[in-house]
Structures are given as structure tokens and as C-alpha cells.
Amino acid sequence: MYCYFAQKKDLYEIFAYAKDVDEEIFSIILQKFRKEKMQDILGYLSNDGNQRLLEQYILQGQNLTQVDKEQKLYFVRNNIEQLINALKKIKDHDFNKIDYSTEENQEYRQDLVKRIKDDMQIIEFLKYLVHLISIENNLIECESNSFNLLVEMKVDMKNKNFENIKIQNASLVGDNFCGCNLSKSQLFKLDISGINLNGALLINCKWNNLRILELNKLDGHKSPIASLCFSPDCKTLASGSYDGLISLWDVKTGQYIAKLNGHSNTAYAVSFSPDGTTFAGSQNNVICLWDIKSRKIKSKFEGHSGNVSSICFSPDCRTLASCSWDSSIRLWDVQTGQLKAYLNDHYDLVFSISISPDGTTLASGGGGLVGGGDFSIRLWDVKTGQQKAKLNGHSNTVYAVSFSPDGTTLASGSRDNSICVWDVQTGQQKAKLNGHTHYVQSVCFSSDGILASGSWDLSIRLWDVKTGQQKAKLDVHTHCVQSVCFSSDGTLASGSWDKSIRLWNVKLGEEIKPPCKNYLDISLQKNLQSDGFIYNITIPLISESLLLQAKGALIKGIYINHQEINLLELFNKKGSLILEDSLNITQNAIQK
């Protein structure tokens, strides 16, 4: 660890020593320094003459006898000395030099929180530090560390005055700052997902490089979303809808890029080739292939006699697999457009296919359109076209199948409301995941093995396949979730019958116990240097109330997220009152 244990032990002793400073004296000193706009508090307090003036300021207006005055003076002087000594020790301590929110300091930070979380005097001292240092220019790291400790301990922050605070590298996911005065605050590299700013005062703030875990809600489709797929480089998301529209979106900005022409009916399936050069989309019984660079159709595959419900490329990009309501699966040569194999052992509609990461096995699932029929999952040898296994376990139509990243596990989602997890080698069912209360329409594995599922119960759920436990439930869509899809970097996209697409930052790392009931038990503990945000910080991933709240907040200043997107429009949609000149202020800041 960066700090030696002895040094860290000293920090607790500093807090314990300073906690004896009288709260009323804290308040008076803070009031004076704010009034005089003091910027070098330690420099001021280190001067004996200033100490005497401060003593007189604290004692003024008190009608005391000489004896009481002497006793009070001794008490005040002793408190000031304690405060000075504590601030000097903190200034020279690592607490004012390094970021204590990092992973390398996690063990000590958790131990420190455990020791002070029930000591209200130390908590009050930390609050005082945050307020005091907000007007001090030499203790900014200490201010951030103190604030982060308060946040981690879930100290009540409602209706507090946090004017002028300067905070960086912190997670405020789901925290409640309702009614707070955050005017003139400077926040940098913070996660504010699900934060409650209802009724807050945010005048002349500078908030930069912020992150909101629900990255964007992508609007543009006028019909329900049928299918989603990320490009291999994670920069583009393709969506297909029931109106036949196939759209390309910029994942970073959430902006619409282009429409791929060639469809007029439901785009049930979309897929990027693994090398990123080709895009495939289905419409009725036809599959179109586009060149990604030119965005022009380069070939069409025809042969199915029913709607093409699912398509996927082989890892070597040479083969495209498709399945259809005509009960068949077809394997196509991408280069020539010739049919390589015709698989027809299903005797009912085939809704979903998936090719294993090594390209040797294809899985398929299907059944009746409204239930009934063939509920089996079939495993096929891609090279020979022969069926390898038939998996039985669902009691109704199978709508979705997906291989795990290592190819050893297959997940299937069904109209029976369940998800089955299968051992690909043996064909045995390993687990059944229950929790959804309606049809499971889509399943998808992340690169680190977490399973996402989308359902007609309007929810998205994340699962630990090894334990069979549900890790999170995301209730944001207002209609059936038709499609879920992970990018290789861990971003999750969800498409719904509510005609929206939502992007979620659910790049999963080491699981930790959630700090309180306000969070579900999913957390991120990952080095995020690649996107210039929080470095090695453990933060809650998904809160029960993921959406930012800012009703009645009065806002003026600069509010920019880590993608350089102006957040004022978001605040406005949340019911905030935006002062007129804020738009110009923020626009100028972005341009600079």
C-alpha cells in the first residue's frame, strides 16, 4: 500500500484528537473566515496576533464575569490550538497528498470507516473540515478525501451548505443532496448517477468530467426496437426496429449517425462481422449485407420462406448463419453468397441462434409463435451441419440463446419466464435462473461472463451464472425489453417496445458488499484510466434509483460530462430552473 500503516494509524489519532474541539467554536470560526473570504487559513492561524483577534471575536458579546471569562478564554484558546495542530498534521499527512479513494488504499479506507462511522464527533469534524477547507486553497486533496469518507459512510447530506467545495475523484451514485447549497462548487471526475438534487441551489458552479452510468437514452425510432448489436470496436451501436428502420448510433455521444437503407419491414436481426467491415440485417425472409465504410448494400441472401429472426457471423467472418420462422437454419458463404448448409431438424419456428467463440458449434432455439410446439435447443456442428445434441428443459418456446465467452456454457431464455444454463460439452442443464415474471426475450453474456436478460416484465436483469444468483434488476423501460446486447468493453444496450434504446455502463469488476440498502449488490472496482475518469476507485455500479433527480433546483454555471456533453438540457428535463446566461457560459467553456 502507498501509505505505511503507522502513518495511516496517525490519521485516526489526528481525527480523535481534533474531535474535542467545540462545535460552536467550529461554527464561529467558519463564519468569520467565510465572511472575510480567507484563503490561507493555516497561515492566518499560525500568527499569534491573529489568534488573539480570533479569541476576542469568539468571546465578543458574551456577558461573563472575570472568572468565567478567564475560564472561557482558556477553553477557546485550547480549542484553537487543537484545531491548528490538527490542520498542520493533516496538511503534512498523506491524507492531503494522495487520493484515498483508490484501490491501493481501499483496505485502509474501509478500516478507517469502520472505526469512525459510529463516532459522531469525528464525523462532525470531517464535516467541518469540508466546510473549512472549501475556502482554503492549500488542502484540496484533504477536502476531497474528507468528503469521500462522509459519502462512503452514508452521512446525511440533505439541506446542508456545501458552498465553494472542491471535490474530485468521487462517486456520488444515488446520494441525496436534496435542498443543499452547492453554489460555487467545483466538481471534477465525479460519478453523479442517480444523485438527488431536488431543490438544490447550484449557482456559479463548475462541474467537469462528470459521469452518469445511464449514458444515454437514444430516441429516433417510431416503432418498438427489435434488435441491437455493437460494432467490434465498441464505437457504434446498430438497432433494428419494427418499422424496418436500421439505425447506427455513436456510443460515445449517443448521437444518430446514419440510416441503412434497404428495408421496409421489421428488422428482426442485426449483426456486425467480427472484423467490423460488414453489417448484416434481416427483413422478412431476406438478409442484406452492407459495406460498413460505404454503407451500401453489397449483397442479399434469399432462400428462407419465413421471417428471418436471428443472424450471426462466424468468428472467421466467412460464414453467416440465419434462422427463420420457416423452421430452418441456413449457413451462407459471406464472400460468394452461396448456401453452404441447410439445417432443418427443428419442426417449429426457430427464433434464435448463436455461434460458439471457437466457431465449431451453433446453438438454436425455437417453438410456437404463441406457445406450444418444439421447446428444444439444438447444438450443431458448423463444419458438417450435423446435429450434435438436443437439449430439453424449457416448458415453452425458446426465444434466445447465447454462448459464454469461453464457449463452455450456453444460456437460453424462454416463454416459460426462465433462463436455463447448459454445459455445452455434456448437454446437461447446470442451473435454472428464475426471477422474471414474464417471457424472457433476450439473453447475452458480457466479456467477463455476466449474463444479462431482457423480459416482457419490463426489466433487465444481471446474473452471476456461476452461483445462479441475480445481481441486479434494472427497471427503467416502460414496455417489454426485446433485446439486450453487451459490447466487448462492458457497455450494455437495451432495446424496448417503448421505442427507446438505453446504454448502461455495466463494466463489471470485483464484487464488493454494497454500503447500504440504497444500492444493489453490483460494484465496479476497475482501473478506468483508459477513459480518463476515476482511477482504481471502488464505486457502486447500479443504484435503485439510477436516474438523476433535480426538480426545483436553481442552476447556473458549467455542467459538462466526461464526453464533453452539456448537461444543462438534462437538468432542464428533470425540472430544474436554468438561469438564462448558463447556456452561454457552458457553451463557451466547451469551445475553449
Automatic annotation (TrEMBL):
Keywords: WD repeat. The keyword Protein transport does not apply. It comes from the Eukaryota. This is Uncharacterized protein. WD repeats lie at residues 218-259, 260-300, 301-342, 343-390, 391-432, 433-473, 474-514. PANTHER family: CHROMOSOME UNDETERMINED SCAFFOLD_625, WHOLE GENOME SHOTGUN SEQUENCE, MEMBRANE PROTEIN-RELATED. PROSITE patterns: WD_REPEATS_1, WD_REPEATS_2, WD_REPEATS_REGION.
